[in-house]
């Protein structure tokens, strides 16, 4: 009987100890539930810019001679093949000049033929001592002068023929006409830009970067189908634009290019900035703005504590922060507005 009484008392004491180790139901209900997430390292920050598709080689088209434009054979946006006729000048003056140069050449050749015949005849007479040496030297000099006149007339005739050929401006390479500046009837000078021909086999994106920014070396161009085209920095202007104070940069696209990319179209590019310090990516709900600085909440042994952070970038769903914390740390992702330092929380099952 005494043994049974002792056993009964021991069971009562053990039951009381177990009940005292668990919080009462009303205390457990006051501990809030929070959603948590494991801290991850952030990808390199990518800035978004609007750019214009350009050809790697954009060549201004111009005549080598001056004249009046007679015909125009191209329109802006038109693709042309190598050797395609672009413009033609009025050739009436050029034809007259070429005919005059040809006539001068024929006259010089006739004078040379007469001087040569006279020299040969006098050389025969010199052998018979009918003509003095001085007379022969004078004839030789006249023959050399006539030959020099032929060479000069021939060069002028060649220049006139070349000018006649320059009256037709043809495409040196295949490409797309991005701009036409002149119209038929307009008088143009030597080297004056008439149109711009861009080779569309190699595309580049032209963007304007803010003053003081370091141009990223690489980035990508998102396509409507979800794919991405890599871009890399090709050149940067040597000085800022005096009006906008922005810096012109060109990024080359790595082909092949889809048909949706056409010269002159406006595209959106993402340029990856080089990170100077480690950063982390957190959901926007993990940021708490109630303090003097943005902060996140760390979870340790069922309680939370705040940690001040520096916000680098804000996106639609995530924020990029910089803080002295290791990747893999458990933080509160939702419900930070209810937390206080040292508060006990319950982790919501994912």
Automatic annotation (TrEMBL):
| Protein known as | Efflux transporter, RND family, MFP subunit
Q: Which family does it belong to?
A: Belongs to the membrane fusion protein (MFP) (TC 8.A.1) family.
Q: Where is coiled-coil annotated?
A: 98-163
The record ties this protein, via InterPro entries, to: MdtA-like_HH, RND_pump_MFP
Signal peptide residues are 1-20
Protein's organism: Marinobacter algicola DG893
One GO molecular-function entry: efflux transmembrane transporter activity
Q: Which UniProt keywords apply?
A: Coiled coil, Signal
Query: Where in this chain does the record put each Multidrug resistance protein MdtA-like alpha-helical hairpin domain?
Result: 100-167
């Amino acid at each position: 009987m005494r043994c049974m009484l002792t056993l009964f008392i021991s069971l009562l004491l053990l039951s009381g100890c177990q009940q005292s180790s668990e919080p009462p139901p009303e205390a457990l209900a006051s501990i809030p539930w929070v959603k948590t997430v494991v801290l991850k390292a952030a990808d390199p920050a990518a800035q978004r810019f609007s750019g214009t598709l350009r050809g790697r080689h954009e060549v201004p088209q111009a005549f080598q001679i001056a004249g009046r434009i007679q015909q125009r054979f191209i329109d802006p946006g038109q693709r042309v093949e190598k050797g395609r006729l672009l413009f033609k000048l009025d050739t009436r003056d050029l034809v007259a000049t070429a005919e005059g140069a040809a006539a001068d050449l024929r006259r010089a050749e006739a004078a040379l033929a007469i001087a040569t015949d006279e020299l040969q005849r006098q050389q025969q007479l010199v052998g018979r001592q009918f003509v003095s040496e001085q007379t022969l030297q004078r004839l030789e000099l006249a023959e050399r002068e006539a030959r020099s006149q032929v060479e000069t007339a021939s060069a002028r005739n060649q220049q006139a023929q070349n000018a006649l050929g320059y009256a037709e401006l043809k495409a040196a390479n295949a490409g797309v006409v991005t701009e036409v500046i002149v119209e038929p009837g307009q008088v143009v000078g030597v080297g004056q830009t008439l149109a711009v021909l861009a080779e569309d086999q190699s595309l580049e994106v032209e963007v304007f970067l803010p003053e003081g920014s370091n141009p990223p070396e690489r980035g990508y161009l998102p396509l409507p189908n979800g794919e991405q085209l890599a871009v890399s920095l090709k050149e940067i202007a040597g000085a800022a634009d005096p009006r906008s104070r922005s810096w012109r940069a060109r990024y080359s696209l790595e082909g092949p290019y889809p048909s949706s990319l056409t010269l002159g179209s406006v595209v959106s590019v993402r340029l990856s900035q080089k990170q100077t310090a480690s950063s982390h990516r957190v959901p926007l709900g993990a940021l708490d703005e109630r303090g003097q600085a943005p902060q996140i909440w760390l979870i340790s042994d069922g309680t939370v504590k705040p940690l001040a952070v520096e916000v680098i970038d804000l996106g639609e769903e995530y924020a990029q922060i910089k803080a002295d914390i290791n990747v893999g740390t458990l933080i509160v992702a939702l419900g930070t507005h209810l937390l206080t330092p040292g508060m006990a929380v319950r982790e919501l099952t994912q």
